[in-house]
Amino acid sequence: MYRHVPLDEPPLPELDCSTCPALSMSEWRVLTPAQVKQLSQAKEVRRYRRGDSMYRQGDPCKSVYCIHSGTVAIRRTDHHGNAVLLELKQAGDVMGYRACFSRTERHNTATASDEVIACALPGPAMFALINDNPMLGHAFLARLAHELARAHDAILTHTQLPVRARMARLLMRFVERRSLPRSSTEVQIHLPVSRHDLAELLAARPETIARTIAALERDGVATFSGRMATIANVSQLRDEMDCG
Amino acid sequence: MYRHVPLDEPPLPELDCSTCPALSMSEWRVLTPAQVKQLSQAKEVRRYRRGDSMYRQGDPCKSVYCIHSGTVAIRRTDHHGNAVLLELKQAGDVMGYRACFSRTERHNTATASDEVIACALPGPAMFALINDNPMLGHAFLARLAHELARAHDAILTHTQLPVRARMARLLMRFVERRSLPRSSTEVQIHLPVSRHDLAELLAARPETIARTIAALERDGVATFSGRMATIANVSQLRDEMDCG
DNA sequence: CGGGGGTTTGAGTCCGTTCAAAATACGTGG
DNA sequence: CCACGTATTTTGAACGGACTCAAACCCCCG
């Protein structure tokens, strides 16, 4: 845990934010070239291996992170061990800002879901950039507002829809993000996480996920093989999204 | 709906933000006296009657609101009619800013739960204040971050805890907000909403709420009479908050 | 070839729901 | 102030989706 410079790994690459492909997807895109250089100098590149946690509930908030590559799972756990996977962060996503803005300790845990390279930017450096460039503040206001809407959506879907419909919605999100079209109606997607994580994403048990997948195959909606899924008919999947 | 100046009502009071008791509880508390005057001139006082909606899902976002008195219910509804009561806003709360910051239409509906007097501040006026005073931007960043944490909490509790524990948590929130101590262990609270709204707050059915209340009384945790509730032993209620 | 973690299947249970009806509270007009 | 009609709340019985516990299965890797 917390290791980010294993001895037996190749040295971390030097990353320049101004040429980073993640820049245009992140909140930093509103910065001027000079401010990007400032960002680049203040940041620190880190590597995390599958299972490493970047921060944990209760930690003080020292930095925000910008993901260069890999997938990070953001989880909230209660003191009974029940966990919910709140979201998956990927390349170009900025994460870990919530605790900085509310000036509280971390309320959830960030875990590398596979090999992750991310840059850590100290909180004060971010606040300095916001003071220099009000557009960055607005970008974070918009981002937080968007996240809040998504969280409210999750409350609604998790409490009102059966697991099967929630699964359909999740699959549709993966389809929209990046799918390999195989024919006019058929698409193939790569599930970025294990069944266990799928369960935590949908606030259900792994057994229920297995059963739901089996039911989806039985009904000819999709076929699953490991982390590959082939949706037979996207519009049919869309119909599953409301009620089941 | 949308009516806020009924003909048969007394005229709206002239309200001056600088003397408003809600000021110190709202985000506007970071403003200078001159900026408060600016706020006061830009705002418009409105009155809503029980059941009136202040805005609805799908509306464009024109203003943010600052509640002077009364209770407002913020709801999210899906196109099947399933509704969740996301939160109750009361005197001193600012509301309706989420859609402004994300520059999207309203994602939920705000309904007056009883007689409400609130001030509407046009979105552009708020943005002007934020530009004049960066502390206001930070205050909203902190507020949004806090709301996001609360929403994530709700996801966890709604999916992991039984209704009875969720009810205990809600009652505790009311106790902490304002309770009338009757003895060392016994407190009395006023439930600000109907059973139906209680159900929507807990993401359950009214029938389940009635049964849960009956069970709580049977077990001697609390007694209920209309909108009055007497908690026999607060620490006993606290024990109910995790699992049931 | 033999672990071992992750995944799947099976059987039984429980919590909350649904549907329906009774009871209570509420507001209005007489 | 009481009677009435309506809305809200409560109770009852039956159903169902997801959970629990347990065992079998499978695939990857040593």
Can you put this structure into words, describing what you see?
Two copies of one chain form a homodimer. By secondary structure, chain A is α+β, with helices and mostly antiparallel strands. Chain A is 39% helix and 23% strand. Chain A folds into two domains: 17-158, Jelly Rolls, CATH 2.60.120; 161-240, Winged helix-like DNA-binding domain superfamily/Winged helix DNA-binding domain (Arc Repressor Mutant, subunit A, Orthogonal Bundle). Chain A has eight helices and twelve strands. In chain A, a hairpin with a 5-residue loop joins strand 9 (180-181) and strand 10 (187-190). Mean pLDDT of chain A is 94; it is low at 1-7. The first copy, chain A, binds a DNA duplex (30 and 30 nucleotides) through helix 7.
How many distinct beta strands of chain A? Answer: 12
Kindly state the mean pLDDT of chain A as a whole number?
A: 94
β-strand percent of chain A reads 15-25%
Within the largest sheet of chain A, what's the order of strands? 1-8-3-6
Largest sheet of chain A: 4 strands, antiparallel
Q: If helices are DSSP runs of H or I spanning 4 or more residues, what is the number of helices of chain A?
A: 8
Percent of residues in helices of chain A: 25-40%
| Count of domains of chain A | 2
Order of helices and strands of chain A: HEEEEEEHEEHHHEEHHEEH
Distance between the termini of chain A: 40 Å
Coarse structural class of chain A: alpha+beta
Let me know the CATH homologous superfamily of the largest domain in chain A.
Jelly Rolls
CATH hierarchy: architecture of the largest domain in chain A: Sandwich
Assembly state: homodimer
As for the CATH topology of the largest domain in chain A, it is: Jelly Rolls
Which ranges of chain A are low-confidence, i.e. pLDDT below 50, for 5 or more consecutive residues?
1-7
The dominant shape of chain A is globular
Chains forming the largest contact: A-B, 44 and 44 residues
